[in-house]
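Allow me, if you will, to draw on your knowledge of protein folds for a short while. I have a record of one protein: its chain in single-letter code and its fold written as discrete structure tokens. Could you please explain, in whatever detail you think fit, how the structure tokens follow from the sequence? The record follows directly beneath this note:
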Amino acid sequence: MYAEYFGLSETPFKITPDPRYLWYSSQHKEAKAKIGYHIVQKDGPVYLSAEVGLGKTSIAQRLRDEFAADKSKKVVLAFAPNLRTANQFIRFIAEEFEVKTARSYADTLKNFEKYLIMQFKAGVTPVLLVDEAQNLPFDTLKTIHHLFNFTTRNEFLI
């Protein structure tokens, strides 16, 4: 109704986040810059916390889109993964990175570690962005933490 009445090319005021319309306050710029820096430096996990509706999802989407053209990064954005077990989560993440999954959690994790090592040798940094991680079960959060055990002597492999 608005688009037709005002002659707009698309419907305004959608509820879903659209990174094209992210307005960068100084806090948004700082958050995006810090996350981008940590990704480039391979510094490990970064946590972004803010109230609902303040742009966390839009920043994650924008980072994913910006790094998509960078062949030295493989970015996966897990948007509010509603997965109840750590095994479901690691299988989901492995599939998103195109890693062979196995029946067991341990075997999928081993396959993922091999993938991370291969990517490191190829000069590619896998980047995992998890949106709405606060809703994940504790065991799944431990799995995310476990992924940061995969390192070289001086940098994280993811």
